[in-house]
Amino acid sequence: MNAVISLCHFCELHGPRILFSTQAYHNDAQLSEGASLEGAFRGRAGTLCSISSAGSERSGGASGSQRTELCEACRSIQQGHAGFVSHDHDAGISYTSTQYPAQPQIFTMVRQACIRSLSCEVCPGREGPIFFGDEHYGYTLSYTFFVKDSQARGFQRWYSIVVVMADRTFLLNSWPFLTSNIRSIIQKVQSQAISVYETEQEAQPQRAERINRQLHAPQKLFLRRGGGSQVFRSLIDLTGDKQLFRYLHMLFSWILMAGGSRLTEKVLEGPPNEEAFIDFASEEETEEGFIKVTTKLLDSGKESDSAATETNYADGGPMFRSLSHFRKVIGSINFHDLAYHIITGNQVIVRSQCKSTLKSVFDVLKTLLPTTIGTTIVYSTKYEESWKCNFLGLSLETGIPDYVLSSELYIALDIIPPELNPTNYTKILVDSSDPFYDYGIVIKSSATVPDKVPTFQSRVENMMDNGSVDENVVSTFLQAVKQEWMNKVKMLFKFTRAGSHTEEETSRLLKILQAGHEDEPLLKYWKMGLSSQYKSHLLTESMGLASPSSP
Hints:
17 helices, 17 strands, 36% helix
């Protein structure tokens, strides 16, 4: 994860200070490895080694005067200790922990985050996570907390753990992962400090001693040093753990390593796919006030059922394995007619005795369409109008209105089981091993399929006619062709929204897109699959490209 994790402290003498910083390097040639091995910790790629070497303190952007001002409370790595280094050998990444970040620019960003996290950017109660930042200083997740100290004012010190990175979206998407792991670190530090605090209070209660000092000591001395004789103590003293910063280095390194591998980025070639576009209409707000982002693919063809909300389709009926299997069962001629009605937006009505058969039919037929096009009612006890669904499942006993059968905008497919004695004319010609052996098929439609069907359908049928390719190849080819034609739909949508055009200009564009007049019904129907948010995105992008650049 391309970020810096830092432990910060509010010193009563020096104010907000960076105490400990961990960051990743993709080139570990800068790091000195001439040191002895201090310990080994298991990491993602086997061994995560912690190394210390002699040398001057890495202060990065800190000046020499700053180093001399450090008190015990502001110091994590002592003089003569260069810090900690861990290596992920498989990934080629090294993780270093020092007092300050090494690069001046990163030091400035972390220093700014440190000051804001311990002054103005604080959540209610002064303990807990908060997000802030900007493009100039980067974005920060800050988790503030208190640590018990028997010699401090109010018997506690104020600390924060900040995660600073330039990618705002990545940081917010990592919020649950980061806050849960940082919280566990804080709880361990606080539990250690409480143990030390209780031990010191039992040995010498500080409250009575301070009251006594207030009565007898000069007022100015008390205001300046309201605690004991050693006011500014290090976090190691407060927790009683001499290996604390080695432990923090190990955990901070693991967070950077695991945080970078849990989320991956996709390279988008051109405008994002409609299936990958975020559905802002269904955005959900979390308790912290953030918008929950999901990577779940959109599917406006979500199944609905007018008879019942949940239906069990496992009734033992025969099922279609794939689009190729479906075409083989019903025949290439019937598939040709059915496919034309599907890709041009006409309603497809399928009647069968088994709900599982109906579901398998719609599952394979919907692969001819983009994910965002088409709605389905898998099973209904009555006919539903075409504006409600593109795919409708009925039982064989359910009647279809005459106005539907006489319209050219509908096609009906009946799957007749063997017990209803299908005629030889309708019987399916398949092997006896096929689950649809002895079944019958009847297709009804008043429409006449044109001699020249859309190019998309022709290419798909030509691929399926090739008996040497398997179902996986056909599926991959189908996805590629669908994406190709969706890109043409997007181009046509931008063209139509750019102003009025003559038929000649439209024909010229179709020629450039390698589409003919036979493809217009498909382009018109598939354009309906673009969501309102996605249409707005395409229009905004085209307007940005069309606007002249400022001088």
